[in-house]
Amino acid sequence: MSREVPSIPNSRTQLLPLLKHEFKKDGFISKEAMSAVAERTGLPLNEVYGVTTFYSYLPVSKKSKNVIRVCRCLPCALKGALGIIESIQKELDIAPGEATADGKFSFELINCIGACDQAPAIMINDQLFGNLTPDRITEILKSY
Amino acid sequence: MAEKRIVLSNCEEIDPDNIETYLARDGFKAFERARHRMKPKDIVAEIKKSGLIGRGGAGFNCGLKWEIALNTKAKNKYLICNADEGEVGAFKDKYILQHNPFGLIEGMCIAGLAIGAQQAYIYLRTEYGFLYDHLYRAVAQARERGYLGQMDILVFEGAGSYICGEESALMNSIEGYRGEARYKPPYPPTHGLWGMPTIINNVETLMNVPHIIAKGAAWFNKMGTDRSKGTKVFSVSGDVKNPGVYELEMGSSLKELLDLAGADDVKGVQIGGSTGSILPASLLNTPLSHETYLGCGAVVVFNSTRDIIDIVYNNICFLSEESCGKCTPCREGTEVMLEIFGRLSRLEAEHANIKALEDVAKTMAVASLCGLGQAAAVPVLDSLKYFRDEYINRIEQSVFMRSYLGGEMSKA
């Protein structure tokens, strides 16, 4: 479901929902999208850029088709996040922060996603995978 | 000691997609009572009398907060449910939202009556975006039933920022600004969203409200310790057999909680997330309450194979990344700590580094703008207090390795 845009009490509060809407459409916030949002909210473009880049889930450059996010916080680290990271690295031949040449996968390390009871956990796009072992990575990535 | 499920009483009992199942278990009875038989000041007085303290981690008296908002005259008032559960090791609010969104909505409706709010927000972290539709449907069902007559609820999703769980940063985020902390005072109950009186409560705090209104402050007051009434929901993870969500009476010991979660081998525990206290196994009899250790109730257990420096290093990596950057002590302090822990992990540390850590920690605690910077030093100082020999050992190894390898280390 697309996110509800608040109608009150001033236009600036619509900024984040509108940016999220653009993100859902394109998978990133393009310069054009930022300009459109700036126009709609009556804010200067630099303000819109400032807010956009504050958040880690509003990327300003094009992402690959699937984004793999591996939680690296304490509970996941204790339960073997490092092994998961190595396994993804080996499988895709890319390091955290990089994307595959075909644009199919990109790979990021992120902070706690609240799946500590299923550690180690990763997210691929909006899908959560928990209680992982390094050898399950191959099979999971194949399904994309 | 067994669990005492009050906040979680309807979880896994009702169908979270069907309000009828909640109503069948006396849902919204407390709200009806508050709406028809109580004045706003009576509701506030009841919550105040119950001694309910906010469950988000800061530990402020809930009734007192509501009273300030009630007594502040303004055109608009707002209520915000803080569901931006970003604390490391915390997942209890997610469990509540998944299993009993109606209990939360009822708590919000009562809070709205108490302070006279017309609009409420549930600020949901984007990592829990998969719960958006679920919450939206629950709110819609409550609206259809006429429970949102006085105050409507809007689900507002964040975009990935730990600091937005801090109340003033959260309000900036809703208003469409960068999610940076604000200078306080003034505090939200008098100057919150758009400068209007605003109450911001954690999910679990609001879940307690219908129970207190239904059963009375005296009933609630019987549970817990002197200052900490009621129960607390804990998220337990790390080196335990049964990680998960547990609800215990306030004042239960850490050991009772760990027994429920199945921890046989405990070297230490971190309570309250990335800025939480670290306790050694010798202190497992400590009661968990606002007087001792609690925070948001995130408990991460680590066993005897774990290295304390790795654990604190992980905390500091997280905090330096999530520092919003607005105030200097936190922005620079977390970087200094990161640098020192980097040296410790690369065997480049010196004895003077411990003193430096302690100095930075003290400065951050007194000079940072919000809780992140103020508490960032807690795990560092606690680990230095209880596991100092591990730091000394690591530094002596480093000194030995450097002298043994001579110049080779720096080249490697």
Written description of the protein model:
- The complex is a heterodimer of chains A (144) and B (412).
- Chain A has six helices and four strands; from the N terminus they run H-H-H-E-H-H-E-E-E-H.
- Chain A has 144 residues and is of the alpha+beta class.
- In chain B, helix 2 packs across helix 9, helix 3 (40-50) crosses helix 6 (101-115) and helix 13 (328-345) packs antiparallel against helix 14.
- Chain B has three domains: 19-221, 3-Layer(aba) Sandwich (Rossmann fold), CATH 3.40.50; 231-302, Ubiquitin-like (UB roll) (Roll); 308-411, de novo design (two linked rop proteins).
- With 412 residues, chain B is of the alpha/beta class.
- The longest helix of chain B is centred in the last third of the chain and has 18 residues, at 328-345.
- In chain B, strands 6-5-9-7-8 form a five-stranded mixed β-sheet.
- Chains A and B meet through helix 1 and helix 4 of A and helix 7, strand 3, helix 8, strand 5 and strand 9 of B.
Structural category of chain B: alpha/beta
Based on CA atoms alone, the radius of gyration of chain B comes out at: 23 Å
CATH architecture of the largest domain in chain A: 3-Layer(aba) Sandwich
How are the strands of the biggest sheet of chain A laid out side by side? 2-1-3-4
Unreliable stretches of chain A: none
Fourth CATH level, the homologous superfamily of the largest domain in chain B: NADH-ubiquinone oxidoreductase 51kDa subunit
Strand content of chain B: 5-15%
The third-level CATH topology of the largest domain in chain B is Rossmann fold
Topology:
The complex is a heterodimer of chains A (144) and B (412).
Chain A: H1 15-26, H2 31-41, H3 45-52, E1 66-71, H4 74-78, H5 81-92, E2 105-110, E3 122-124, E4 127-129, H6 136-142
Parallel strand pairs in A: 1-2
Antiparallel strand pairs in A: 1-3, 3-4
Helix pairs in contact in A: 1-2, 2-3
Chain B: H1 19-23, H2 29-37, H3 40-50, H4 62-71, E1 78-83, H5 92-99, H6 101-115, E2 119-124, H7 132-144, E3 152-157, H8 167-175, E4 198-202, H9 203-215, H10 217-221, E5 231-238, E6 244-249, H11 254-261, E7 268-271, E8 277-280, E9 298-302, H12 308-322, H13 328-345, H14 352-367, H15 371-375, H16 378-386, H17 388-405, H18 408-411
Parallel strand pairs in B: 1-2, 1-4, 2-3, 5-9
Antiparallel strand pairs in B: 5-6, 7-8, 7-9
